[in-house]
From TrEMBL:
Gene3D superfamilies documented for this protein: Aspartate Aminotransferase, domain 1, Type I PLP-dependent aspartate aminotransferase-like (Major domain)
EC number: 2.8.1.7
Catalytic activity: (sulfur carrier)-H + L-cysteine = (sulfur carrier)-SH + L-alanine
Organism for this UniProt entry: Nostoc minutum NIES-26
Protein keywords: Pyridoxal phosphate, Transferase
Family according to the record: Belongs to the class-V pyridoxal-phosphate-dependent aminotransferase family. Csd subfamily.
Record protein name field: cysteine desulfurase
Record bears the keyword Transferase: yes
Cofactor names: pyridoxal 5'-phosphate
GO molecular function: cysteine desulfurase activity; pyridoxal phosphate binding
Top-rank taxon, per record: Bacteria
Family matches, as InterPro entries: Aminotrans_V_dom, Cys_dSase_SufS, PyrdxlP-dep_Trfase, PyrdxlP-dep_Trfase_major, PyrdxlP-dep_Trfase_small
GO term, biological process aspect, one: cysteine metabolic process
Amino acid sequence: MTFTTTKTLADKVRADFPILRQEVNGKTLVYLDNAATSQKPLFVLNTLRDYYEQYNSNVHRGAHTLSAKATDAYEAARDKVAKFINAASRQEIVYTRNASEAINLVAYSWGMNNLQPGDEIILSVMEHHSNIVPWQFVAQKTGAVLKFVELTPEETFDLEQFKQLISDKTKLVSVVHISNALGCINPVQEIASIAHRYGAKFLVDACQSVPHFPVDVQHIDCDWLVASGHKMCAPTGIGFLYGKLDLLESMPPFFGGGEMIAEVYLDHSTYAELPHKFEAGTPAIGEAIALGAAVDYLSSIGMDKIHAYEAELTAYLFQQLEQIPQIRIYGPKPNTQGEGRAALATFTAAEVHPNDLSTLLDQEGVAIRSGHHCTQPLHRYLGLPGTARASLSFYNTREEIDAFIKALKETLDFFAGIFS
C-alpha cells in the first residue's frame, strides 16, 4: 500500500472501501458519519477473515501450530499499536472492548482504590458520556467531588478556568482530546503539565484524535489514553488503554478469570504480568489482529498526510456551510487551511429539528448524525435539544461535500415551504 500519484488522497483509497460504492435509497452513498464509526478497508476485512479461515485458535493457551500463529499475530498487533502512539513499552497497551471499557478500567482499578472523600476529579462539559458516567460512579462510591471546565466564547476548552479550578485536592483530570460535537482540539499537553504540577493524574479520551492525526503519548505526557478501534478503520469490539508502565503495575486487576492469572489456589490467586493482568478471558482475537491491520493501513498512508487532506476538506466544508444563512455551526472556526479544529461540523438549521433533517438527507443517500452525540450535558449547556453533525474522513471527497450541501439546501427549502 503506497500512495505516490498526484490524485487526492480519497481518489487513491476509495477502491479499498467497497461500502462507499453502494446505493442508499437509490442514491450513491455519501457517508459523513465518521465520528460515530469509520468504514473498514478490504485490507482490514481480509485480515479478519484470514484469521477465522486460516488460523482460528485461542491465544496463549496452546502449543499447537494454530495457537502459536494466532498468539504471534495477536501480540504483533499490540506492538503496532504501541508504536502507533509512541508508547515506551508494549506492556503499556491493554486491549479492551472499546474506549468506554478502558475508562471504566481506570475508574474501577485506580479510581476506587485511590480516591477519598473530598478529592477532586476535573472533567469538562464537552465530555462524551463515557468520560462522565464512570467518574460519577467513582464519586458516589468514594466521596470524591466532580468539577467541570466550561467553554470559552469561541466554544473551546476554557484553559484559564481550568487553572482556577485545579487545586492540591485534584487527584484526576480526564479530558477529551477532540470534542466529538464541538470539534475543538484541546491543549492536552498543557493540561497534562498543569495537572502533574498539582500531583494529579491525567487521562486523555483520544477516540476522535488517534484516527485523524499523529498522537504521541510520551509527548503529551498523559498517564492514560483510551481509543476505540472502530473509529480508526478497525472492527467493532476492540479498543485499547495506554497507561504508563509504573502506574499500570500499581493498579489491581479490573476483571477476574482466565488469562489474567499466574497461579490460582482455592483461597487466593496471583496475577499475570502486564498487560495480561487486565485482559481476563478469551479476548477479541480476530478483532485485535484486525486492529493491527488498521494501524498498518493508516501508517502506510501516513497520519500527517491524512491530517493534511482532512484539513483541506474541513476548510471546504465550512466554506460551503457558511454560505447557508440558516446554519449555525458550533465550536471554533477553522483557519483558511482548515486547521485549528477537527474535520466535522455540528450545526443547527433554523427551526428544523436535527432528526428531521437527518431523515430527509438519508432519502438523498447522505448519512449524517443527529441527536445529542452522547454529549447531553454539553447540549444542555448550549441550550439545545440536539444538533446535526457531518463528520469527514480521509476517504471523503469534495464532490461528496457538494452532494451533501445540495441535499441540505433542498431539504431546508422544503421545510421553509412548510413553515411559511
